[in-house]
Amino acid sequence: MGQVNGKIAIVTGAASGIGRAAAIVLAREGARVMATDVDEAGLKETLALITKAGGTAATARQDVTDEARWDAVVAETEAAFGAPNILVNNAGIAIAGAIMDYSLADWQKQMAVNTDSVFLGTRAAMRAMAKGGGSIINLSSVAGLRGSAGVSAYCASKGAVRLFTKAAAVECATLGLNIRVNSVHPGIIDTPIWQKSITRITETMQPDQVSALTAHTGGNALDPNVIALGGTPMGRAGKPEEVALLILYLASDASSFTTGQEHVVDGGLTAS
Ligand SMILES: NC(=O)c1ccc[n+]([C@@H]2O[C@H](COP(=O)([O-])OP(=O)(O)OC[C@H]3O[C@@H](n4cnc5c(N)ncnc54)[C@H](O)[C@@H]3O)[C@@H](O)[C@H]2O)c1
Q1: Mean pLDDT per 10-residue segment, the chain (272 residues)
Q2: Which mutation among 24, 61, 93, 198 tests ligand 1's pocket best, with the greatest number of atoms within 8 A of CB?
Q3: Which atom of ligand 1 is nearest to the CA of 154?
Q4: From the CB of 17, is ligand 1 less than 6 Å away?
Q5: 19, 12 Cβ separation under 8 angstroms
Q6: Sheet with 262-265, edge to edge strand ranges
Q7: Nearest residue to 126 via CA among 65, 182, 195, 177
Q8: Spatial distance between the Cα atoms of 91 and 121, rounded to a whole number of angstroms
């Protein structure tokens, strides 16, 4: 029997990386999954992977910053499968850049995609789960636990996710709702987000700033596995599936007494 048999999950950012892995693992373990993203081609691939493995899923185009779309996605999930009892707020971007050159527009976009979305998703899920209960899992980062040069807005967005998660968890428990809320804090995971973010560093930052930021990577700033050598005791980047298995635990009833906590999966990065 699957670890989330009979449950209904919404996973955002499911066209790539950690979100795709989470959708696949949850479906493999018995959940029916609504996979959402702005990337419709990527969603098709995710759906094909789930279906090929015998799982059940549907897809919906969703920009997680669009307030009205959240209600529609919950309604589409209810129509397809029933009321959701798992939400993985995973969609995210990393807009890198030095603070002195960073625009307010980039700051606001960073916060909208990574943080506003988590508020909107949590609110929609709490409304949908108020009767039947559920588990909300918010993707933060080790960048939500400590600072890093060149990604200050990303750090701020993920720090906000960490503390919003705790407040939401306490509020759910205090209101007597059977809804648990936890945050997941990956270290360096081998997904396309690195390519997107670091390409932007090299496009927008001064050459001397880029070399200061990438000195520890031996110049190979685009490869998360090389970056991981700089500070990850396990000496490699994580795989999306290794984060997905933690998400599975938090989604399942195995974590029934766990709420409001930050769960780090980083190969030891923050241990030293
Ligand atoms: N990869 C890492 O090293 C790492 C580390 C810590 C935290 N995280 C977090 O994990 C989450 C997943 O990242 P990933 O590494 O799998 O990245 P990824 O780039 O592979 O996937 C992110 C997905 O989010 C989608 N997305 C972006 N903006 C969106 C929007 N407005 N609406 C809907 N979907 C949108 C993208 O299309 C993409 O499919 C993010 O929140 C990220 O910040 C990643």
Answers
A1: 95 98 98 98 98 98 98 98 98 93 96 98 98 98 94 97 99 98 97 78 66 56 67 93 98 98 97 90
A2: 93
A3: 43
A4: yes
A5: yes
A6: 56-61, 32-37, 8-12, 86-89, 134-139, 179-186, 262-265
A7: 177
A8: 11
Buried b (16+ CB within 10 A) or exposed e, 132-167: eebbbbbbbbbbbbeeeebbbbbbbbbbbbbebbbe
Q: In the prediction, which pLDDT does 263 show?
A: 98
192 alpha carbon to ligand 1 midpoint, in Å?
Answer: 8
CA of 93 to the centre of ligand 1 (A): 5
**In the prediction, which pLDDT does 200 show?**
65
Report how far apart, in Å, the C-alpha atoms of 210 and of each of 93, 149, 169 are: 19, 10, 39
C-alpha 174 – ligand 1 centre gap (Å) = 31
Residue ranges per structural domain of the chain: 8-189+240-260
Structure tokens of 134? 């559920």
With a 6 Å cutoff on the Cβ, whether 112 touches ligand 1 is no
Q: Which fold has domain 8-189+240-260?
A: Rossmann fold (3.40.50)
Residue 193 Cβ contacting ligand 1 at under 6 Å:
yes
> What are the tokens at 16?
């790539």
Atom number, ligand 1, closest to the C-alpha of residue 158: 43
Instruction: Map residue 258 onto helix, strand or coil.
Output: coil
